[in-house]
């Protein structure tokens, strides 16, 4: 059973489901089409569980469940896949969120559009899965680019009147980043030939290349630029509020909860291991952008009048914390950043989907249109409050553990930066309370008068996210047991050790 190609199957299964859903005649009915798509997403989740059971803690191998097949032999390209703790957690996040999104969006698209929408979601799942398991740089780049195709159509076809403009902006930013990344990928391959006489895109091989510091600086800049667009970091962020604000809530969850994680994942998987000296030398730049993103996102969220744009700015602030943890170069900071990637995916889904249910009922995303919603939809208001509190890292929820661990790890090496970033938590409390106060309290507006409370299907879609967020808030150690070996490996790759204060503190 352990010899099964689990990771390739996790890529192929949703892709097969996508093609099948595309091919099902509309005459068979939207319910059947949706059911087939949901069935494939649940099968993929079950396959992930089986794959996860094969994952062993305490092994010396960096990657597990590995597969390697020659793809383009003349250029040293392989279909090479494997997972470490970070990859496994990201696969888990994707496997959980996709069926949740499909169930949540069950009635958000017309019957005529259901087949294409559900097929595109499954296609996106397939391509993002490939990104999270690729251990060949060329393979990673290919899927880094092709995942834009389903997301472009999901943004451009399902959303408000500005969706097409937002989709084009998303595509332009992504393609510019992709072209810069391609230049970096080619340059790494060429230098591998010059140094060793053999060209390869294998991650382990590239991480052991003796690149000059000057070469590392230029290559770091290319890779960081591409990943910072995806992350997104200020000032490369402007596509996200437009894309998330113009798309449907379900698509926004896929965009922010899953797709944007590729940026920070790429930093940990490829940027730091391949260019360790440049990563340490240029860390102050990344840390500065991280703190800037924390405050910029929070302040812009306070000034937003649109719920979806507000939540997009909140995510920019959260990604600032993730990058802060990565470039603090402490085991605790990196583990916290990886855990933050997981908790952010869950909190984003909870808030976007719950708020999306309300926006679907009122046909508006304007905050002022939803005053007094608590009086007509008290249960839905409770879910929105949960999502808002999760976004501001309420103690007892997964986001609190993530934020606290990142700040603790950062403080050990950069106490001033950690102290400044902590102020971002105060600003976060302002936008969360402001959102809830403007939408849930006061006299009911005309838009919320007479609307129905959350349905059973919608509760079922939100329940696993809420349960996981609470469970990881109280019992985070199993996740850290999976992630800590990866953070230790990253620290080894960048030749960094924890500050004495952190070591003496018992980490």
Describe this structure in words.
The protein is mainly alpha-helical. It has a domain of 216 residues. It is built from 23 helices and 2 strands. A two-stranded antiparallel sheet has the order 1-2. Helix 14 packs parallel to helix 20 and helix 18 runs antiparallel to helix 20. The model has no long low-confidence stretch (mean pLDDT 90).
Short description:
The chain has 507 residues and is mostly helical.
**How far is the first residue's CA from the last residue's CA?**
36 Å
Total count of strands: 2
Beta-strand proportion: under 5%
Helix tally equals 23
Q: Based on the structure, what is the oligomeric state of the protein chains?
A: single chain
Strand order of the largest sheet: 1-2
Identify low-pLDDT runs: none
The coarse silhouette is: globular
The level of helicity is: over 70%
Order of helices and strands: HHEEHHHHHHHHHHHHHHHHHHHHH
Q: Structural class of the secondary structure composition?
A: mainly alpha
Sheet with the most strands, sense and barrel status? 2 strands, antiparallel
Radius of gyration, Cα only, in angstroms?
A: 22 Å
Give the overall average pLDDT.
Answer: 90
